[in-house]
Amino acid sequence: MRVKKHWSDESLTGSTEVADHSWRAVCLSYACDRISSLVENESLVGSSLGTLAVARYILELHILVINLIGARLYGIVCARLLLQDRLNHENALLEQHLSEIEVYERIQLVESSPIKSGAIGTAEDMAALDHQARQSFCLYLEKAKYWGYGFWADRMKEEMLPRIRSEIERLERKLEEFENRYPCFSEPNALPKEIRWNKAAKVAGLKREWDFIYKNTSRLLHCLPGSLVVTQSEQTAAEVRMYLDFTCVTLIKMGIIRLTPLAV
Q1: For residue 39, what are the CA distances in angstroms to 32, 199, 206, 207?
Q2: By CB neighbour count within 10 A (0-12 exposed, 13-18 middle, 19+ buried), where does 120 fall?
Q3: Residue 83 in contact with residue 175, Cβ under 8 Å?
Q4: How far apart, in whole angstroms, are the C-alpha atoms of residue 109 and residue 91?
Q5: DSSP string for 52-93
Q6: Could you tell me the CA-to-CA distances from 106 to 57, 103, 208 in Å, in that order?
Q7: pTM for this one?
Q8: CB 104 within 8 A of CB 152
Q9: pLDDT along the chain (264 residues), means of 10
Q10: With CB atoms 3.0 to 4.6 Å apart as the test, which of 22, 67, 104, 134 could cross-link to 149 if both were Cys?
């Protein structure tokens, strides 16, 4: 039975080599789960854009797996990136909460304004305030509308912000301890602190495949002037089949799927 450790499992310590092997196993386990979820989701390849996105993700996953298997201490690299990603997420969450509190407090001031007293309770006025909040992309909009904007702003400040800030401090300590434990991030020929796909593809021996998929996906997935005049209808069936073939070949190279010889 396979036991998959969580990325933050404190038991993955010890020597650099032991920790590296442990993290390689963890990340490869996650990679297998991700591949399963992608190949089983037929809706992802229902359009040319979806097919392109899946082809690029699968290739990047292939590059990552090859580096995990063969590159120097790549398990440690990925472990640090997992911590950094979590820290980045919590920082973004803090910014979102601070921005949302500001929106709710601004609406609360309008609601409690003496000038608006007696009129702000109309359905039209409340709808206008709700629309203003919706334009700010708020996580807790429905709850704020139900409980009151001022009440929810106070709750976020008293309950949610302390938890997020505490988690940020914990992750910052954990990341610092991680880098201190494994000085290979600061020594000569230090390990990378981010993945540069062009370089990682070269190390993995997949530079030609990366150049092919990068050029094709960038043309449609990024809003450059050229993408404005290219529609999905211009992606012929042959092109979509080519991207599907690319994904299939990548999965075969990874050993995820196997070709069975046809009976003669």
Answers
A1: 11, 26, 21, 24
A2: middle
A3: yes
A4: 27
A5: HHHHHHHHHHHHHHHHHHHSTTHHHHHHHHHHHHHHHHHHHH
A6: 41, 5, 53
A7: 0.77
A8: yes
A9: 44 73 89 80 65 86 91 90 95 95 87 57 67 78 87 95 97 93 79 89 92 82 71 64 82 72 46
A10: 104
